[in-house]
Structures are given as structure tokens and as C-alpha cells.
Amino acid sequence: MTTMRDVAEHAGVSIATVSFVINNTKPVTQATRARIEASMEALGYRPNAVARALASRRTRVLALAYPALDHRLGGSGMEFMIAAARRAGEHGYHLMMWPGTNDGREMTDLLGQRMVDGVILMEVQLDDPRVRPLQASKTPYALIGRTADPSDSLHVDIDFEQTVTDAVRHLYDLGHRRIVLVTGTQVSESYYNYGPYVRTERAFVDVTARLGLEPVIVASGHDAGAGRELAQRLRTEQPDATAVVLLNEFAAIGLLIGLHHQQLRVPDDLSIVSMVTSDEMASLAEPTLTIMRSPGTELGELAVEHLVRQMTTGQRPDPVLLPSILVPGESTSPPPHTPIGRR
Amino acid sequence: MTTMRDVAEHAGVSIATVSFVINNTKPVTQATRARIEASMEALGYRPNAVARALASRRTRVLALAYPALDHRLGGSGMEFMIAAARRAGEHGYHLMMWPGTNDGREMTDLLGQRMVDGVILMEVQLDDPRVRPLQASKTPYALIGRTADPSDSLHVDIDFEQTVTDAVRHLYDLGHRRIVLVTGTQVSESYYNYGPYVRTERAFVDVTARLGLEPVIVASGHDAGAGRELAQRLRTEQPDATAVVLLNEFAAIGLLIGLHHQQLRVPDDLSIVSMVTSDEMASLAEPTLTIMRSPGTELGELAVEHLVRQMTTGQRPDPVLLPSILVPGESTSPPPHTPIGRR
DNA sequence: GTGAAAGCGCTAACAG
DNA sequence: CTGTTAGCGCTTTCAC
After folding, report:
1. This prediction's pTM
2. What is the separation of C-alpha A29 from the centre of its chain, rounded to a whole number of angstroms?
């Protein structure tokens, strides 16, 4: 393995000078620079990242922390990871996967290893125990999602408030007056504190109030099976509903199937909007789903971008909330004359 | 930041002794060990992973190399990544994402940085340019998938031969005699060399031959839209087909929808088996898909397991091919009396 | 503009 | 069983 010393000898300079040209950290004559570069090329030299990290106290590694045991990441979670890794690479950083429980102890361990320059936190809870160790260690970090007090951390997130507002507005404009929001807060304890649900519910209450509608919220599980069951429950529990907004794409498609089994037609009998959904998933449904397309890729890029900026400038960028875009599919239309439960 | 020297002083020993207890690398009296551990605890000491890596020449980092620009990883790719990261953690390793083009140069760069102890290669091509630099560098690596000459690399893979054989056999036993395989080899150049397609096609030819059937192979794109179109083409191009085996879950669901639009019933008019598919995706279809469930999670764990074993024992474990399990859904049944194109 | 030298925090002989 | 010490390969003052 060829080291910096080898290059220095080959070029007839000191290793310091080699270091200077590699890092572009001090002026070096064009001539010696050229000589050194030639030597590096000739010897096939690559700087040892570990030695570099030890000496410079910067590893150029970012950690991507996500919950290992919890519900699996949806399609947009995947988009996020891939995009973040790509963008990190473009900035000269590596992205390290850091599965873990949502607990502060593990975060302390990670940070103690001094192996990462910064951390991106996925699936942030309103009261997230991982944040405190981060703050204490002074390690730069970015949140995907928000804690209860968003002001104290760099974060990027989907604008759930705007998203649900747009979704409801879309349905309202079509003529719907009885719109049901399906979330999962009540389903399991771990979701009680789940930002996307909580924020969406709050904003839903607001927007329905503004429009003079009742804020009907129904709980459901997160898979297709739960969606199918939901089709039955809706009919009895929400007989007057003409439209449903969901926060989970699997449940949305399951609902579609469940309704079909009940001879109910979408969108004629019931309109459906699926939030936090990708185009691919929308196209798997029949009829295709009207979705609020989640900005997974943009979010991943933005998180890295902002984190890197903070690390280089030392200043924390402002939070960013990205809107979801309404992508009309075939699952929304004006409401039926008779709601599904009144026949 | 507290270092090993701090711990040593606090415990009244040399740093070597501290190192010995941390790494369990030399016998140490129970008494001094206890004292040292107490000191570590008291000072909140965590070993610096970077210094450790430099001194020991082992980073305890594994790279997960996957193509950045190519088609997006399916659900099982995601499963794979998550599982690999988890299992790596259980072995005391970190998993670093390494998006890249499928090119050897980038691999050489990665290895030159000496930042990873081992590499896992996803989406391996039959003739993969990343393998040569790996071999040259002596870095342990594991392939997910196989090169044309599988004997020269540690690898784990789905047993596509077995999988397609089982799928065809299942249909044959139901009475089908005109079974169409849908792959993507012809669709784009980058798939020409794609192991899963190539191997599946070959095995399909074999198994149909053994059963005395014609080896009908049709090309299709990889999304739901392509699947929908396929429904039309099948009827004219393969009028006698009674069953279809696909290698892409999105296309499979698209096909289902396309057939539905043509008033064709699944499985009454046409049976469908979707390979490399997850239970979740199967449940999104109506009717639910009969699938060959892809062992994404097992594969991820196995890849790490074998790579770590190779790194510790120095011996290359035998390759492993994992079967896909047939999970019956609602999309297969005995064939119709009249094939879809003969009405 | 270039070089000498002191670390970065730890591992691993080697000595005792 | 424990301590001394020489690095690991690079960055970064501080002289020249």
C-alpha cells in the first residue's frame, strides 16, 4: 500500500508538502505541485481516510439513524435514504446506516465512537430521546420530522399541515362535506407520539373547522389487511362519509379492495386521497389513487444539504417544510347523492 | 473528551492494560479489570473508533455497494439493506452505503481509502467490473447475485433456477400447458446482462423442455404501466397462454389491472405467479397474488454473516442459494377451457 | 514556498 | 499479569 511518505520520496519533497497539495491548504509552486501530482498518479496513491480522520478530527462520515424494530419504512423512507446517500457522496461524505432503537443510550454510544461528523435522524418522535445526547455532544445533526419544540433543532419535514389542508380542500371543492381522516394514533402506543399523525390530525381539525365540517378521525392499522377491514367499519361507523383521507398507502389500497368487495365504487360512492404516497404506489391501485405525493427524495437531499451547510458554516439553516403535491388519480370525484351507509 | 490515557491515570494503570481489558486481548487480574471498568464508567469513556481503526488496521466498517442511477431497488432490495445493516451491527460492524455506478474505478477509490474492511455488492452483473478491483485489493467481499463464473467469489443469491422451476411446476400441476415467462432482458441494454433474468430464462427453458412444453418468453418493462400494456399484448401475441410467470411485482399488479380492464378474470381466465415478490406487495393486488416470496431479509443477513465469517476465519464460505417459497394467493387456479386469445 | 516535528488515540509487540 | 514503546498515516503548527 502506498502512503504519503512514498509519494513524498518519489517526488523529492516532504510529506507536509504532499499534504498541502492534496488538501489545497497552503500555496505550493505550480512546478512542485505538478511533480507531486505526477508521483501520486504514478504510484496510484489514495489518501488513507482513517489516518486523515484521526489527524484532522473529521471523518467525513454522516450517520443515518433510523428505528430498526419499528414498522418498516415505506417507499418514501427508501427514497429518502437513497437520495441522502447520493447527495452525501456529492459533498464528499459517506453515509453510514445506523439502525437502532429510539433510545438515547445508543446515540451516546455512536457519538462516543467519534466516527461520524454529523447525524441525520429519521422517524423523529415528538419527544425524541435521541436529541438530547446529540445536543450535549455538540455534534451537528438534522432531523427528518420535528420534535415538539422544533425551534431548537435543524430540521426538514413534510408539511403535513399544508398537505392535509390541500387534500381536504381538494375534496371540499369537489363538493364533499363529510370527510374522514384515517390515521394510526390510536392503534399502537408507539404511534401515539408520532409527529406525522399528530400534526395531521391537528391540522385536519383546523381546516374542517374553517370549512364548517365535522372533524371525523378514524384509526386504522398500517397494512392492506387493515385497509380492507376499514371498508367494513366505515360503512357502519361513518355512514355519511363521502370521502376519506389516509396517511398510509398500504391501507389506502387495502381500503380500495375492501370497498370493491362490498360492491362499492371508487370514486362514485366514496372518494379517496392517499397522503405520503409515491407515484409507483398510486399506479398499483385500481382505480389509480389520487395522492399527495411525498417529497422523499427532495427531503433526503435537503437534509444532507442543510447538515453539510451547518457543518461548514457553523450556522444552523432555517427549518424547511416541503409541501406534498396533489397528483390527481382516479379515486376522487364529486360526492354521491347517497352516502355509503344510507342505502 | 476522555481518552484512554485518562482512564489509565484514573485507574492507576498503563494505557496498555486498559487496551487489554477493552479488547479482551490479554489476561488481566479480576481486580485491576474491575478498577479499570469502574474508571471507564466513571469517566464515561468510549473508545475512539477512528484511532482504533488506524492502529489496528481494521475499521469494522462494511460497505454496501449498490447502483445509484439504475432502476430503483424493489421492496426486497430494501429488505436486504435493512437486514444487512442490522446483522452487521450485531457483529460489531457498521454498514456504509456506497451508491455508485457499476464501474471499477469507483470501487478502486473506495478501497484505496481503506475505510472499509469488507464490501457487499448488490445488483451484481454477470460480468461485473467491480469484482476485479476487489480481488486485486484482497478486500473480503460478498456478492448478492452471481457473476458468470460464480466459483471465484463468495456469494449468496436467490435460487432463480429453483424458483422458476417451482413456479412452473405449480402451474403445470394445476393443469397448465401453455405457460409464459415475462422478463425484461430485451427491454433495455442494462438488463441484457442481468443475472436474475438470464438465469431465470435459462432455467425456464430447461424446465419447460423437461415437461414437454414450449418455452415462451415475453419481454416487458418494470412498472405497472408496462404490466397494463402487457395485458393487451398477451391476448394477441400469446392467444393460447393460460398462465404467466413474472419477475417484477409492479408489472405483475399492472398486468392484473390490465386484464381486469379487458374483462378477463384472474385466475379463471389466466393464472399469474409473481416471482421476487413480498407478502406486502401480494396483498396489494386484487385478487391477491400467488408469489414466490423473495428471501430479501435472509439474504441480507446471510451476506453479512458469510462476509464476517470470511474475515474472521480467513476461509471463504461456500456460496448459498436461497429458495423462494411459494405462497399461494388467489391468482392461480386450473386453466380455463378456452385460452384468452381464442374466444 | 517548503520542511521538521509533534501529535491524533489507540494497538500490539516486546520486555519484565 | 502489567508496563514501555514504537508505530498506524496523516494534519498542522512553527521555523526557515
Report:
1. 0.91
2. 47
